[in-house]
Amino acid sequence: MPSAESTPARVHEPEPVRPTRNDEVAAAGSELIGGPLGRRTLTGTSWLSPVRVVALVAIGMFALGLIQKAPCYNGGWFFGAVSQYTHACYSDIPHLYQGRGFADGLVPYFDRLPGDMQYLEYPVLTGVFMEVAAWLTPGSGSAQHQGQWYWMVNAGMLMACAAVMAVCVARTHARRPWDGLLVALAPAFALTATINWDLLAVALTAAAMLMWSRSRPLAFGVLLGLATAAKLYPVFLLGPLFVLCWRAGKWRDFGAALGGALVAWLMVNLPVMLFAFEGWSKFYTFSQERGVDFGSIWLILAQNSSDPLTTDSVNTLATLLVVVCGLGIGALTLTAPRRPRFAQLAFLVVAAFILTNKVYSPQYVLWLVPLAVLARPKWRDFLIWQACEVAYFLGIWLYLAYTTSGDAHKGLPTDGYHWAIGVHLLGTLYLCVMVVRDILMPERDVVRQAGDDDPSGGVLDGAEDVFVPGTAVRPARHAAHFDGPQVEWGKQDPADSSP
């Protein structure tokens, strides 16, 4: 038996943040299941740790989203049926199985497609994902039968991506694992998860954020590079990270992240670039050449103008706007009274890209869901934003029903659709304003109110500032997370982590 002198003292473990005790909306909502859970509620059932609960809820919500698509499964996706719009169950997946040559065994990027599209218009890693699903799809039966199977195979693969996304968010803010429920319960997540293949990039980006929070910049860069190989938007996270590392003097870590991202992106893209450059470049040329499209402010302007802007003009203006927003976010990062959290800036830069883009498809909300939760885990604001996105989700399908139903005019006319666009743009802007307010008034940031500095910041968490322009900025040293010795977060008792 060791002596009393040799027995180490129990290390002080920080109190996990339980939203049902710290968030009035979460507390009110918990009354539906019996009220806020106590500290020892999960004692004896430790398998149900917060991360596992979040993963199970995310899978359950994903399954509800599949049920919501059921009216389309038995015919709505085929034969140009208007019911896929009136039932709001549209998905690109079964349409592109036939339309992009997967049903015919064509190889993406290498084989030319019939018609005007010529080549698959998706980034390489998404194309690989689509091709793997095609390999797993039975090749017998009617075209409708194969399309149904292709959607089901993709749904299974995307469900895994959804679980990864939710788990990574739950583990990124280590003292706030229950914030992952915001991701898992997001209505827009369930409704849009199987419209397209965006969840692949979203899951990789969430995993990258987790790696950065664990002070593993190279792994962050590799995952971010893979995410960028699946969708363009993740690369924008390197912008605010550069400015944060500039302010904190963490150049080596930024270099590792940038190098990892570049190498990973090249490993995926270079073989296709070398042997099928025309097919590889289709995604980029298509993005430039496509006109203004659904969900964007540019569509409202075009449909209300007798002389709408040309595509080149919109490209130029949209690029200028996103550059201006990026410069504004950079200035905010350098001059804020306390260095902003990485998740806050990641959300703002992706939101700026979406808001200024010439298309804001309904599934793009998936890009923002995990970043919004990490940036501002406030149930009221998150649900306000989600309500706006659900309104737009219904609005776009009713508008398409109106435009495709002929003289019947089932659905929402153009003016009504413009109101739906305005609602979801304003909802995203509202959340941006709340995040900017938290940056300018860090004492109102719910994450920092709980005693943390930057849980998703990795090497930036609690670091000193070395470059802060201006005399109005406070000194750089951040407060410690909490009183007492720190411990490794992953070893805390899951029974003490009730929401």
Automatic annotation (TrEMBL):
It is a multi-pass membrane protein. Residues 10-23, 490-499 have a biased composition (Basic and acidic residues). InterPro entries: GT87 (IPR018584), UCP010361 (IPR016570). Keywords: Cell membrane, Membrane, Transferase, Transmembrane, Transmembrane helix. Residues 1-23, 479-499 are annotated as: Disordered. The chain crosses the membrane at residues 47-67, 149-170, 182-212, 218-244, 256-277, 314-336, 342-361, 382-402, 417-436. It is found in: Cell membrane. Its main location: membrane. It comes from the Bacteria. Belongs to the glycosyltransferase 87 family. This is Glycosyltransferase 87 family protein. It comes from Streptomyces bobili. The lineage of its organism: Bacteria, Bacillati, Actinomycetota, Actinomycetes, Kitasatosporales.
